[in-house]
Amino acid sequence: MIKLNLKNLLFSVSSVVRMLTLCTSFLVLNADDRPNILWIYVEDTSPYFGCYGDELNKGYTPVVDSLAAKGVLFERCYMPAPVCSATRSAMIFGVMQTTTGTHQHRSSRNFKKGGPVAKNLYQVPGKYKAIPQLMMEAGYHTFNNGKDDYNFTYDRAKLYSSGQPKGYKYPNNGSKVLKGKGSWNDRSEKSPPWFGQIQLKGGKGGSKRLPKEHVLKHGDSPLPPYFPDTDIFNVSWTHHWNTCRQTDLDVAKIIDSLKADGEFENTIIFFFSDHGDNFSLRHKQFCYEGGVHVPLIIYGDHPSIVKGAVRPEIMTALDIGATTLGLANLELPEYLDGQDLFDKNYQKQKYVISARDRCDFTIDRIRTVRSESYRYIKNFKTDRPLLQAQYRDGQATMKELKRLHADGKLDAKVGEMFFGKRPPEELYDMANDPHQMNNLASSSRYESVLIKHRKVLEDWIIETDDKGQYPESDAEMLTQLQFWKQKCVNPEYDKYKVMLSKGVSK
Question: Residue 398's CB: how many other CB atoms inside 10 A?
Answer without folding.
Answer: 18
